[in-house]
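Predict the 3D structure for this chain.
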Amino acid sequence: MQKNKTTVRVRYAETDQMGVVYYGNYAQYFEIGRTELLRCSGVTYKFMEENGVMLPVISLSCDFKKSALYDDELTITTSVKKTPSVKIKFDYEITNQDQQLICTGNTVLVFINMKTKKPMRCPEYILEKLNLQNK
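Done. Predicted structure below.
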């Protein structure tokens, strides 16, 4: 399993009039977690795209447990538990500075060949960087 933690501070613009994080922002928090997990593993979206691979989200799920508030420091724990094939699933857990669970969720992304615009198997270099080959 590949796992990474990253932190973000809730900005005023991400909240509603009650100072609560607007639900649509959680997709961005998941993207931050996913991007940082890949980056820490040595893979970037820029490198994938330069090598003809796109990775669009095809599914997103989020279960809210507690409200995140303006100026909270959130920890996004992102993990990949299963070897990707054509799809890769990222799991998320977001907690606040008091270690209270804010939400859990996941996204599923599909590897797309940029030339053909068709699904493709996960490139070997990504499996190697994520240390997920043959698991």
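The first helix runs from residue 25 to 40.
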